[in-house]
Write a sequence for this structure.
């Protein structure tokens, strides 16, 4: 069963004062391409996230975003009291010349070096990443479910177009044998009109000459081979739509081949009725080509 490449999934949780939120978006792309946004301490896990996404999402442009709000005391910065005292003494000395000024210690926390970040706790970070990994799998469940639902809609539409193509194909097969017979009648009629207009002129026109012209026309406008290939491509297309494997690229190739055969039929048939059917066939194939672009 085919899957779309369009999907969205989100998962969140809170543990020990830390809030996690994972968001995954997926759109169509010829290959797998992941854009991963992680908070600075988690950027070392980017390759792991990329591998995790690739195992389940296959083709597509994948956008992965992790947001963390950590209110636990272990991440609070340490105040460099010695440096803070130095800043305060300097400002107090200057403040004597400006008695109206006030010393705001909270503003001093923004001074360079006063508030220092805690060292990263590697064990704690590893535990947090396991939580992130679990959330990523939950978010991917949502993406896969949406891709499956979108794929079912794509499948219905493409199979409808294939049924339309088969109906047009049957009409062309029915009409094709009459094309040569109609040409022979028209040719004989024109020759007869030409002979009738040539009073007193004797023209020796052998039947085999007309037969040869008809045979040349029949060879030139024979589309049986193209019709056979078109039917075969439709059978392969239907089989791939039911395949459990990723089939987007193969379906794209077959859609191009369908269009190629339809163009050849249109150029060779030399018949107005067949040309109308070919126009409708090409419209259906164009719709298939559009839909295939989003198949995984």
């Amino acid at each position: 069963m085919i899957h779309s490449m369009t999907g969205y999934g989100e998962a969140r949780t809170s543990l020990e004062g830390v809030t996690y939120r994972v968001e995954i978006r997926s759109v169509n792309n010829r290959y797998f391409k992941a854009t991963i946004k992680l908070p600075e301490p988690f950027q070392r896990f980017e390759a792991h996230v990329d591998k995790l996404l690739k195992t389940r999402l296959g083709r597509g442009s994948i956008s992965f975003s992790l947001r963390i709000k950590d209110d636990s005391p272990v991440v609070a910065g340490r105040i460099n009291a010695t440096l803070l005292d130095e800043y305060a003494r300097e400002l107090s000395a200057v403040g004597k010349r400006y008695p109206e000024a006030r010393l705001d210690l909270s503003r001093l926390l923004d001074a360079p070096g006063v508030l220092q970040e805690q060292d990263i706790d590697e064990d704690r970070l590893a535990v947090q990443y396991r939580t992130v990994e679990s959330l990523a799998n939950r978010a991917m469940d949502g993406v896969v479910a949406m891709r499956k639902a979108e794929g079912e809609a794509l499948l219905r539409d493409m199979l409808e177009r294939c049924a339309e193509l088969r109906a047009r194909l049957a009409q062309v097969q029915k009409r094709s044998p009459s094309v040569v017979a109609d040409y022979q009648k028209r040719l004989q009629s024109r020759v007869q009109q030409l002979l009738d207009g040539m009073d007193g002129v004797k023209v020796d026109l052998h039947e085999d000459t007309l037969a040869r012209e008809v045979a040349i026309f029949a060879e030139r406008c024979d589309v049986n081979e193209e019709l056979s290939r078109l039917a075969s491509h439709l059978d392969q297309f239907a089989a791939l739509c039911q395949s459990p494997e990723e089939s987007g690229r193969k379906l794209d190739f077959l859609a191009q081949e369908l269009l190629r055969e339809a163009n050849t039929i249109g150029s060779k048939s030399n018949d107005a009725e067949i040309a109308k059917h070919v126009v409708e066939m090409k419209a259906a194939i164009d719709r298939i080509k559009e839909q295939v672009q989003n198949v995984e």
Notes: The mean pLDDT is 81. DSSP finds eight helices and six strands in the chain. The CA atoms of residues 252 and 292 lie 6 Å apart. The first strand starts at residue 7 and ends at 15.
